[in-house]
Structure formats: structure tokens, C-alpha cells
Predict the structure.
Amino acid sequence: MRDHPALLVASVLLVVGLTLPLTTPDETRHSEIPAEMVESGDWIVPELHGRPYLDKPPLHYWLVAASYKVLGPQPRLARWPSVVSAALCALALYWLGGRLFGRRMALTAAALLMVMPGFQFSAHYANLDALFTLWTTLCQLSLWLGLRDRDDTDYRWIVFAGLSCGLAILTKGPV
């Protein structure tokens, strides 16, 4: 952990984000839909109060429902996709920054990202924004890695970029 300070910061973010109480109405809705998925056994059509809730694609709900299935239906677990996504996004920035500019600059960039109010809000709020941000960040990072050498395109990164883009759409729909 000492060699990777961004991991320490991300770990603190994880702990803090999972301990705050849920707010209404959005967070409670994003907590209830996965609970109904687990209770009904229907993971295909998200429902809220027994009625189909088709406003957003299901990836976020699936992730929360999976945590309920493993850890029990604790409403605060509705935040874990946001918290983990924000931490992974900061780690991706740290990794890229380390490759381009060195560890010190990478740590500075990741730390600055993590203290930005908008980023902090999405990291500690049970909605789709942090997960969507993670997928779009990974898509852009992968495209850069795949296309950075004009003479030698690395198609593995291009495929990962496409996968990340698909997961972004499965998170928030076509934006």
C-alpha cells in the first residue's frame, strides 16, 4: 500500500462511501429496484413496487443485486458500484499518468480527481454516473493505448475499448 498511495486514497473512499446514509428519492429507488430483483428472481426486467422500471438499462441494478445476494439486502450496498467505480477510475488515471509522466504526477492527478466536488458526489451517491464515468474513461484509455503507435495498432486494446463502450451503454443507455 505504501508503494501505491492511490490505493490508500481509493480504500478510504470505499470505506467512507459505504457508511453514509441513503438519501431520497433517487438513492432509495436505486436500492429498492435491485432488492426486488433478488426477491422476485427476475433479473431481466427491473421492477419498482412490482411494476416494470425501464427508465435505465439494468447493469447498475445487476451489480447492486449481486451484492445483495452475496452480502444480504443492506440498502447502503446500493452505493458500492459508485464507490468502486470512482476508485477504479482514479486508479486508471494513476496508472496512465504513471506511464506518461511518472508516479509523482500520477498521484497528484489521481488525488486532484478524488477531491473534485462533482467526482466526490458521484462516488458517494447511488446512481449510474460513477459507473458510466468508469466505462467511458476505460474506453478512452483503451483507445489511446491501442492507437498510440501509428505503425502498430494493438487490437486487444481496441476490443477492450469496444467492450467498455458497450458496458457504458448497458449502464446509462445511448448518451
Observations:
- The chain has a mean pLDDT of 89.
